[in-house]
Amino acid sequence: MADVVPVPQLPPAPRGLLDAVPGLRQVGLLMGVAAAVAAAIWLVLWSQGPNYTVLYGQLSERESGQVMDALTAAGIEYKLSPSGAVSVPEAKVQEARIRLASQGLPQSDSMGIEMIQKDSGIGASALMESARYQSALETELARTIAKVQGVQGARVHLALPKPSVFVRDSRKATASVMVQLYPGRRLEPGQVAAIVHLVASSVPELAPSDVTLVDQAGTLLNSPDDNSESAVSTRQFEYTRKLEQSYQRRIMELLEPIVGAGRVRATVTADVDFTVTEEAHENYDPQKTAVRSEQTAQESHRGGDGAEGIPGALSNQPPGTSGAPAIAGAPPTPGSPAAGAAAAAAGAAQTNAASASPSSTSQRSTRNFEIDRTLAYVKQPIGTVKRLSVGVVLDNWQKTGADGKVSSAPMTDADIKRFTELVRDSIGLRDDRGDKLELINQPFKTAAPAGPVEAPPLWQTPWVTQLGKQALGAVLVLVVAFIVLRPLMKSLTRAAGGGARDAATPAEAVDLDGDRVSIGGKREPAIKLAPSLEQQIAAARTLVGQDPKRAAQIVKEWVSADG
């Protein structure tokens, strides 16, 4: 007789897993699956995407638009942050900067000559036109100064007074310049003077002394008053430092080829006299004379009884002979022998009278002599060296043996004496000036050899960063699959399996593993029935855990089949 073990009747399996799920739960399932798939896709795209680096930060709207247009034309991807920063892929940063620099981008947001070229409309007042001209002039000067090496940006402020016809009301123009320097840069004195004179030459009636130049730290780079004590002291200090450095450079260039590079230390202290001295000398040599001019005057005066004065014209001529007949008792006729005798007698009488009368003679002489004279005007040069103090330290001799080992040996007295004379003659030391030179030999302390330069850590290399992003994306996809999709599928399958089992055995659970059918009294092999619902659920869970993508696809097909 056969023993029949009753087997509970199970309801037919549901046509689909979602048949036993309410509509609200279906919607939640669809939303969860869609969100998980979207997150997985986003993670994959994020891990495959390039790293973006900021190209330019805090740009104005006008500059951002120009930069984006240029990048679009060049075919370079970019991102714009809310602050105005433009980011490009890390591999194309240099290419983007070079392309933008070739186009002069980014430009300053301020307008220069473009402001004047732009139509201002009808009815612009003279005040507005003057303000526009001044603003354009300031912008153009700032652009020019920004071209100077080391200057990142500049701003110029001009104070241009209104011209007046009255001299007492006229005022001078002034200017203030602020420069933004690159990190670690400084302007040389020549560059400072060039910027000051550039601004002064660009504005009418503006003197270089009325231009003030400062940097971003608020440091005054120029002295408006070049004759002030501080400006003079600064120039004197710079001159002294340059003079000392020139002497040091001479010593180093002279001794380093002999002793070795880095084995010479020299220090020079110069005492410079900046006193301004002016002298005028005028010397005379009395032994060296020369007649420059001479005037001589001689006068003779003879006295007598005759009338003195200027005689008439007739008295200057001798009387002529006359042919008139001689008259008795009359004076002798001129020209006659008697007249001649009378004249001779009269001349002799006069001569005797003249010799007997007193006479005076005077002589005057004036001579001008030129004395030898030397006139000298001497002005002592500024910055005369009064004394030099030089200190030189030499390292020991370095010798390399046959085995390649380097040995050190001190210098001899002859070497030190030879180097001392060489330095003294090379820089022109003078004993009468009190110059001092001290040269010694002392072994230098060598620093520990620098170790090999370590390569950057592996995690800082770009390819490792990109690989890390991809690995992180894969891990996040797996996390979404196992933490989001798998529990969701488990909860749904549990709800469906629990409802079917409760309908079949409301009182107790049914264990189908022990269900067997025995026929007759003999013990025959048990007939294994079809797998139970719980076994199917367990198998489905295993499949979902092993292949979540396939499970998601099956769920999607079920949802599509149910309509």
Q: H/E element string?
A: HEHEEHHHEEHEHEEHEEEEHEHHH
**Strand share of the residues?**
15-25%
Q: Largest sheet at a glance?
A: 3 strands, antiparallel
**Spatial order of strands in the largest sheet:** 1-3-2
Radius of gyration, in angstroms, nearest whole number = 62 Å
- Provide mean pLDDT, rounded: 75
Which stretches are poorly predicted, pLDDT < 50 over at least 5 residues? 1-18, 499-524
Number of helices: 12
Helix content: 40-55%
* Number of distinct beta strands: 13
Indicate the structural class: alpha+beta
Tell me, briefly, the overall form: elongated
C-alpha termini separation: 52 Å
Commentary on this structure:
This protein is of the alpha+beta class and 563 residues long. The chain is 40% helix and 20% strand. The chain is built from 12 helices and 13 strands. The protein has helices spanning 23-48, 61-74, 93-102, 113-117, 126-145, 189-202, 229-259, 337-356, 413-427, 462-504, 533-546, 548-562, and strands at 52-56, 79-80, 86-89, 151-159, 174-181, 211-215, 264-273, 278-302, 359-379, 384-394, 397-400, 406-409, 436-441. The chain has a 3-stranded antiparallel beta sheet with strand order 1-3-2, covered by helices on one side. Strands 4-5-6 form a 3-stranded mixed beta sheet. Helix 1 runs antiparallel to helix 10 (462-504) and helix 7 (229-259) crosses helix 9. The two termini are 52 Å apart. 10% of the residues are buried.
